[in-house]
Amino acid sequence: INWEIMNLNKADLIILYLYPNTISPITLMELGYYSQSRKLIIYYLEGYYYYRNI
């Protein structure tokens, strides 16, 4: 996982897709970690488990 975080830190843009009917705990961790950055785009549909919490 260190290589993933290292490369996310280097990225100019991070796009997270939250797939419907899933919880996606790793993606939620990344969402929290990069939520204050200006390089994050989040895409999710109404069927996503935490749809009303995002």
Chart the SSEs and their pairings.
Blueprint (H helix, E strand, L loop, with lengths): L1 H9 L3 E5 L6 H10 L5 E5 L10
Parallel strand pairs: 1-2
InterPro entries: Nuc_deoxyri_tr2 (IPR039470)
Pfam families: Nuc_deoxyri_tr2
Write a short abstract of this structure:
Helices cover 35% and strands 19% of the residues. By secondary structure, the protein is an alpha+beta fold.
Description:
The chain has 54 residues and is α+β, with helices and mostly antiparallel strands. It has one domain (2-53). The protein has 2 helices and 2 strands. The protein has helices spanning 2-10, 25-34; strands at 14-18, 40-44. The chain has a two-stranded parallel ribbon with strand order 1-2. Strand 1, helix 2 (25-34) and strand 2 form a beta-alpha-beta unit. The longest helix has 10 residues, at 25-34. The radius of gyration is 11 Å and the shape is globular.
Main sheet characteristics? 2 strands, parallel
**Uncertain regions: pLDDT < 50 for 5+ in a row?**
none
How many H/I helical runs? Answer: 2
What is the H/E string?
HEHE
Roughly how many Å is the radius of gyration? Answer: 11 Å
* Average pLDDT metric: 93
Quickly give the structural class. alpha+beta
- What is the helical fraction, as a range of percent? 25-40%
Q: How large a portion of the residues is in β-strands, by DSSP E?
A: 15-25%
